[in-house]
Structures are given as C-alpha cells and as structure tokens.
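step: validate -> pass
step: tokenize input -> pass
step: predict -> running
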Amino acid sequence: MTQRKIEIMDTTLRDGEQTSGVSFSVSEKLTIAKLLLEELKVDRLEIASARVSKGELEAVKKITSWASSTNQLDKIEVLTFVDGGKSIDWMISSGAKVQNLLTKGSLNHLTHQLKKTPTQHFSDIKANIELAAKNNIKTNVYLEDWSNGMRNSKAYVFEYLDFLTNQTIDRVLLPDTLGVLTPEETFNFIDEVRKKYPTTHFDFHGHNDYDLGVANVMEAVKAGANGLHLTINGMGERAGNAPMASVIAVINDFLKEVEVTVNETALNKVSKLVETFSGFRIPVNKPVVGANVFTQTAGIHADGDNKKNLYFNDLMPERFGRKRKYALGKTSGKANIQKNLQDLGISLNDDELKKVTQRIIELGDKKEVVSQEDLPYIISDVLDSDTIEKRVVVENYVLGHAKGMKPSTTLQLIVEGVMYEAHAQGDGQFDAFMNALKKLYKTHSKKELPKLIDYAVRIPPGSNSDALCETIITWQREKNEFITRGLDSDQTVSAIKATEKMLNII
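step: predict -> pass
step: emit ->
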C-alpha cells in the first residue's frame, strides 16, 4: 500500500513561545531549530512572529544563516501580518524566505477586529502576496479562527478560499485557533474543503483547550489534511497546542495509511532540552515523554510482565530512547522489587525479599520516595548484613569560598579501606568537589565516573529556611541513566551525599 506523506511543521519556537512565562534566547532558539531539523527531522519550522522585537530579529537571522548554509532555508517559516508591507521588510532584513500570513478566517473576526469588508481584506492580502513574490518570498496563508468561520460563516470561508486558491501561494493553513472543534467537526470541515479544493495543500493547526488536540489531529489526517502543526511538549497559549510526541506515536500506530519523517527515538531528547530551555515542566504523566509513563507501580503489573509481558502495549519505551521502570512503594510488591534488584545485579532469598518488601511498604505509608538506588541501603539496614557494603566513604572535605577567588575543595575519600586525598577548584563548591573527585578517580581507579546530566534541589512545600533540602542528581553511565538523592540542611552537603551513593552503586 502506498502511504500518503504528511508534512510536520513544528511551531514550538513561535506558537510554543506564546506559553505564559516562556521566552527563548537567541542561542536557545538556534539550538532547538538545529535539533528539530537534524535529529527529530520535522519537515518545516515556524520560528518567530515578524516585528516582535530586536531579539527576535537577531534569532531569526542566526537561524536563517545556519539554514542557508545547510540548504534548509525553505524549511524556515515566519508568521507575518497584513500590515502594508512592514512584515515583508522585516522578512527581508531577517533573511527568511517563507511567510505564514495571518488573515481572518471568520466573518466575526473580520468585522469586529479589522472592521473591513471581505473585498477590502482580500485586496490587502493580494497586495501582500504580490509584494512577497517580488522579493522572492513564498507565502502560506493562515485563516485565523477558521474553525468558528466554518461553524458560523461558512459562506465567507468559501468565498475567501475561492479567492485564495487563485493566488500564488504554497499552502493554506487551517487553525482551530481557540481549540473549540470536536473530532467529528474537524473531520467534516476538512473533508469539505478538501473535496472542494482537491489540489490545494491544507495544513491543520490544532489547539488543546478541551484536551481534544490529538483526537482532532487524527480526524484531520483521516479527512485528508496534507500537513500538521505541532509543538514540543504541547507548549502554546492557554492549554497549548497538539503535542508532537503523542501525535507522532498515534500516527505511527493507528494511521498506517500515512507516513511521517519524524524520528521517534529523538522525541524524548528534544522534549527534555525544550523543557530545560523553557522552564516549562513536563507533567510526569504526559504520554511518551513524562517521567512516569513507562513506570509500572502495581506489583501485579510487574508480575504480569514477568509472565509473557502481559502489561505491555505498543508504546514500548525503547522506541523513544527510554527504558521501562518499576516503581518502589506500598503497592509495588515483590515483583517490582525483584525487577529493580535484577537491574542492580543483587539476589535475595525469599525471606530476605519479604523483609525488604515490608520495609518499602512502611516507607510508602509515610509518603517517603523510594528509588532503585535506595535499595542497597534498605537491604543493608533491614538485613543487618554485609549484603551491600559501603565500599566508598566520603571521609572528610573542606569547602572554601573567598571573595575574588574560585571556590575550592580538599577531599578525603576512603575506597575499600584506603585513604585518598585531592584538592581542586571549580565554578561552585559542588563543582570543585566533583573536580577533586575526578582527580582521584583518574589517578587511582580504572573506573570512569558517570556523567552528571541533571541536578535538581527540592524543598518541601511550607518549609522554613533552615529546613532540609533534597538534592536529586541524574547520572548517565554508558546508555543507562540512574538517580541518587541526598538529604541535608545544606544544599552542597546533600549533593555530596547523593554523589557518595552514586560511588557505591558503580
């Protein structure tokens, strides 16, 4: 069966940046753009709105310069306005060659916002398209509020499309601007325009106000849409846009009649980077990219996975560069614990396993967070044995920080009974500690320390300034990631405790 190609346009850098409180720097925009095109392999990028700011212009210049050098300039798009040529001048100065012209897709918006007649609006649009063409700029056209236009002023929409499809444009962009469409409406409206204009390229731009973004995208594809507009992590104004990861998974698993070029394995990496740059946190239960979505919590599920993967579905974590995990808590049971012990290479008899399970249940009842990395210490405590010995001890350290001087650390480390000492400086006290640690391991050990890839400090809500804080460090060793935690009233000390745990795990 020949599959129909669907273009994926990512609008994280434009519509996604309209998320409240989000603003990307010039370098962040360039980094994200490169990642989206070269690793995620989306077809097109909408990277900015014209005339917003000097910083926005600088970002677009950087991206267009890079895209031009890699023969990808035609994939870079900018939102523009019907403004007498001001947006075109901005486009020329930015180096961008594709405009997404924002026009009115409903009579309500045209009448009350622009206060113009259709004839006047069409004339202004025609002038803009012609001016763009004279300056070697291609045009796609947004029909803002198209969804309400189809509901309430369909005659105007088709009058406009009759005009528009006779202009020199590449694509017509159909947004559900306010996220009001039902899946049934989405299918019917797109089916209607596709049948009337069979040779026109139509993109669907879905918003998520009723949490129907993904469902609407599915129906848009079924109805014959040629392209989709998506954002990383579902970022966007109000409830956000249709999320990239979920849509790609749905298309690949349920819409076999179409194909997309997006690289699934890069979705998690890109999502994490955008989360870091934006400060817009991914909900832990967000499909595909959330921290917990490949974590089994109930013991019966882990048991079922041991018996012919009974609780697996087609959303295998490996597809997205991730790994299935088994949570530890009051509902986990022995099967979950065994899964984690297997990963750590630890074996317990039935009696020992029963005791450890009981302790984890007790901790869960107290709302304590138990991680895989805590298991060796729980085992050691519960069994009062040498099952897991503390082979590496941070015996002593001196942290120094003086005005005008780099922070420094003198570290004493005991490894299997032997004392080692090192001194180092760093950009902060913990960085100095890690530099001293790296010195010791480089000199005295053949082991390579894991790479620190994430560092988070958490203070319980409602705590006082002298309350305990928890430092959570994510490490990467080869292709595997693991987390260690440290608890102390001092942030640096809690980080050192988390690092000591890491040293005993490796």
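step: describe -> Residues 298-307, 462-467 have pLDDT under 50 and may be disordered.
step: cleanup -> pass
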